[in-house]
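To whoever is on call:

I kicked off a structure prediction for a single chain this morning and the downstream step that reads the tokens threw a length-mismatch warning. I double-checked the sequence; it's 399 residues and nothing unusual in it as far as I can see. Pasting both halves so you can look.
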Amino acid sequence: MTLPICKSIEAGMGSTLGFLATVLGFGSILGKMLETSGGAERLARTLIHRFGQKRANWAMMFVGLITGIPVFFQVGFVLLIPLVISVARATGLSIVRIGVPIGISLQVVHCMLPPHPAAMAITATLGADVGKVILLGLVVCTICAAVGGPIWTRFVSKGIESDLDTLREGEKPVPDSELPKFGITLFTILLPMLIMVSKTIFELSPWKDSPVGVWVDFIGNPITALLISAFFAYWSLGICRGKTMQDLLKYTEQCFGPVAGILLVIGAGGAFNKVLLDSGLGVKLGEILTSLDMNPLLLAWFVAAIMRFSVGSATVSMMTSAGIVLPMLAQYPNLDPAIVCLAVGSGAICFSHVTDSGFWIVKEYFGLTVQGALKSYTAATCVASLTAISLTLLIAQIL
């Protein structure tokens, strides 16, 4: 009995990490180059200038969405904290109205948009097209981040106090001349998504079976797309900014350390999924869920939300939910797996509370009480989650 379980764990972890370890490594390089080059600062300054100070909360929402593509939630949050505080003080808006949209944006991108590791993992598990998940996810992420961020905080921020004295001061502003240009920064961040989406669009064209299609398929593979993007980031945000090869090597070594813990969590999720499938429990759970006579997308959302509420980790809840939902998909052959990915991601956004490390990061950095964090950030994740699943159901009806 023990040996088959061990083999299932080995197979599940190996099959999951064999693909994701490479993707995660290249993605972390992109995030590190964005951090060290001042790219995040450039994005924020340009967007705040375009939106105006009175709508700085909307600008910060877009900063979170864009910055969140190559970086993990915790990294992106800590990276943007000095900016959040300085913008709040400059505009007179509360820390909740400026900061919560950042947190929600980072969270929805983490849960729903490849090449983020959890979103990429469930995309592979459910057999969905990466480009389609990105295209649909961009629409859903933007709308639910707006509803859960600037719109929601407008109504709740007045009743929530923040102890600004406990927040660390922002660093001395970097001169504009020392920051990368907005256009090249934005292009570098979006490059892997543009490559993968281009592959999906090409497959809808009449030339998909032509000899060129082989090369498009190769370049549009997530691993190749992220490899190209990592090398481009070395050039655009590194060498062009006067960095040496030794600097790039140092940044690369620094970015791999934090990835180890995430790899273990994702690998454990893959192992758990494999045990569920090999034991037959996943099939039984799928049969039970199917017998509830409930919309399969709502079921996927519900399972992910319950797991998120229970274990706290969005990554764990998504990986586990994908393993439970996968056997159920056989009952719905016409259901696009890309839409199921959005439903699972929607559920994982919900219920960030005391079991989630991200909740405590938001609370401490914003100087909120537990009650204040629950009213603002936790409630915002629930609002964003409900908005996301509503949009997912609407997309399913249209497509």
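Update from on-call: the warning came from a stale cache, not from the record. Cleared it. Sanity check on the structure: The chain has one domain: 2-398.
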